[in-house]
Amino acid sequence: MVDESAAKRYKRKTLIAFIVFFAMIGIAWAGWKWLVNQPLDNGIRGGIQTPLRKVLDLNEEVYSGLYSTKNLVKEYPKSAAVKKARVNGDVGLDETLFDTAAWKLQVVRTDADTLFLTMNDIKQLPKIDVVYNFKCIEGWSQITWWSGTRFSELIKKYSLHKEVQMKFVGMNTPDEEYYVGIDMPSIMHPQTLLCYELNGKPLPMNQGYPLRLIIPVKYGVKHLKRIGTISFSNTKPPDYWAERGYDYYTGL
Q1: Cα separation values, 17 from 6, 7, 24, Å
Q2: Nearest partner of 94 among 225, 199, 233, judged by Cα
Q3: How buried is residue 133: exposed, middle or buried, by Cβ count under 10 Å (0-12/13-18/19+)?
Q4: Which pLDDT tens digit goes with each residue over 202-229?
Q5: What range does the domain containing 20 cover?
Q6: Buried-exposed string 161-172: b where 16+ CB fall within 10 A, e elsewhere
Q7: Do 178 and 225 touch, CB atoms closer than 8 A?
Q8: Which pTM value belongs to this model?
Q9: Within a domain: residue 59?
Q10: Whether residue 174 is found in the same domain as residue 76
């Protein structure tokens, strides 16, 4: 015969477990209702609820604090690179709105003076190859071979020392449809390229011809294709996907 006191304790524990279970469901539901009713961080384009953005900003502080330009992304032999690189988006690449003959890279200095550089100007800078595992935020990755000049070489060549003391770099496509904001330490990483070749040949149009960004320490959404304008600031420049709820830092 079951001990009556033991049976009572069992029933009491079961009741408490059910009460706690439904209380947790209630708390979770109330928390969700509170969260979805919070204001968005970007009212024009949507964005995400401000409490979630604060969490992402906290993550950014932690990961940027651990960042070092001395940590290099793993590189591979050219033979390991895929023959046909996957395209991770086409916003800002409308060929009908782009005049290849008229293209010049615009670099806006802090004194509002703008440099206008041709591809010949870019190709005068030291050229390097970077073969690494390109990672897309959608979950896929590929080993790809890119060639161009380090972003830091542009800074050195055109004496942009005042500009590089700022916190961020902004980049836009010529039609301004796509744009990114990147922290200065990441853009100055030795593997960050102003890239004009893929697999040893000029960039295809759908990969950002004539010049794109390759920044191995970031996910693909930061690798702006077809750079039109580069600017510098101490406040975060607009960023296409951050405005739509993604992480601004987007580091690996």
Answers
A1: 16, 15, 11
A2: 225
A3: middle
A4: 999 999 999 999 999 999 999 999 999 9
A5: 1-37
A6: eebbeeebbbbb
A7: yes
A8: 0.86
A9: no
A10: yes
